[in-house]
Structures are given as C-alpha cells and as structure tokens.
Amino acid sequence: MKIFLDTANLDQIKEAASWGILDGVTTNPTLVSKENMKFEDLIKKICQVVPGPVSVECVSTASKDIINEARGLAKLAENVAVKIPINLEGLKATKVLSQEGIKVNTTLIFSSNQALLAAKAGTAFVSPFIGRLDDISHEGMGLVDEIMAIFNNYGFATEVIVASIRHPLHVVEAAMTGADIATIPFGVLEKMVKHPLTDIGMERFLKDWEKVKR
Ligand code: G3P
User: Fold this and answer.
1) Ligand 1 atom nearest residue 183's Cα
2) Domains in the chain, CATH or no CATH each
3) Which residue among 36, 48, 94, 120 is least packed, with the fewest CB closer than 10 Å?
4) The one catalytic residue among 83, 95, 103, 213
5) pLDDT under 50 in the chain at which residues?
C-alpha cells in the first residue's frame, strides 16, 4: 500500500519524507488555509520535496472553469494531481482532463456509484472519505470494500485513496481491503510506528548492554 501524507504542512512533509516511506501528498482547501504561505509557492515547494503525486484541489464549480483551473494547477509541477469533487460538472471536466494526460483525484466520494462514474470518466484516483462516514454512523471502510470489488470486477486502473483517516486502526483496515493508497495525517503516521513493548524492549536491551564486558 502506498502511503500519502494528508497535509499541506511543509515541515511535516519533509519529516515524513526523511523516514523513507512517503509516496505522495494530498491537500485540500482546509489544509492549505492553515499554512502561512502563498498558495502557488507552497504547492511548488511541496512538489519538490515529494517525488510522487501531490493532490491539489480545484475550487471552480462549472466544468469549463474546473478545466481551466486544473490546467493551471497541473503546470505548477509535473507531479501535481488535480483534485476535483464528484458531481456532474466534475465528471465532465475529469473526462477532458484525463484525455489530456492530467491526473485527476476525484474527491468527496461517499458512495460506490460515485466512484464507479469517476472511474468511467477516467480519473486516476478516487478518494472515499471514511472518517466522515464513521462520524455519521456509517461503516466507512465498507465503502472501500465495495469500491475495491467493483474496480477489480471490471479491471479499472483507477487507484483507491482511503482518505479522512482518523487513527492507526483505519490504516490497518485500509490495508486489509487491498486499497492502493492510504492518505494519513502526520499525527496518525507517527502513532503507527509506536508500540509500548518496543519502548520497554529497547530500554531493557540498552540497560543490559551496559553490563556486557567490552
Ligand atoms: O484529504 C481529505 C480528507 O482526508 C479529509 O479528512 O479529517 O477532514 O475528514 P477529514
């Protein structure tokens, strides 16, 4: 499973990249609004740090405008993937942009029919938001299972990005579904490496090492 970082924070991105496990980044308007930097400069910098895809969201709502905005965003760096919310205008834009070779990440996916239509329009990625479904008492990971089954049934090349991840167990569950990618907040990624027994074991080994005759 590829690991993307769900943030627009450069320090977090640099840090995660230094761990050698980072395959890409996803941003959205909420995440970029937290950073004190000019939007385009920020995206260019992120794209330099991360060799893989960096999702950048379009905020236009009519297909013509989405297409123009997406073409502009795609020019910022070679590894930009344009994020487009799922709706009819987004689908129209996705078809045109995909044919031009621009990678689209269809976002705000909350049903498998939305994912199916986005895949048919040629999107490179779909982003089901599982945490937000869990928030309203719907089984978020069930949606990922459905989408994986549908994409496998028909051999769609579209990759599934499990998004809106809230805790390490979500990552385990995402990996169990066989999803291509999990996009993970920095705090959750940090937690994934930790285990209290690892800390206790390390402490004991280091203490015992002091007793070894050298
Ligand atoms: O990248 C978008 C998605 O991961 C948002 O997550 O926590 O705002 O539902 P959240």
Assistant:
1) 4
2) 2-209 (3.20.20.70)
3) 36
4) 83
5) none
CA of 212 to the centre of ligand 1 (A): 50
The per-residue pLDDT for range 126-172, each reduced to its tens digit, is: 999 999 999 999 999 999 999 999 999 999 999 999 999 999 999 99
Task: Measure the CA dihedral 183/186/192/196, to 10°.
Answer: -170
Atom 10 (ligand 1): residue with closest C-alpha? 164
Distance of CA 183 from the midpoint of ligand 1 (Å): 9
Q: Would the CB of 131 count as within 6 Å of ligand 1?
A: yes
The answer to whether the predicted template modeling score (pTM) of the entire model surpasses 0.90 is yes
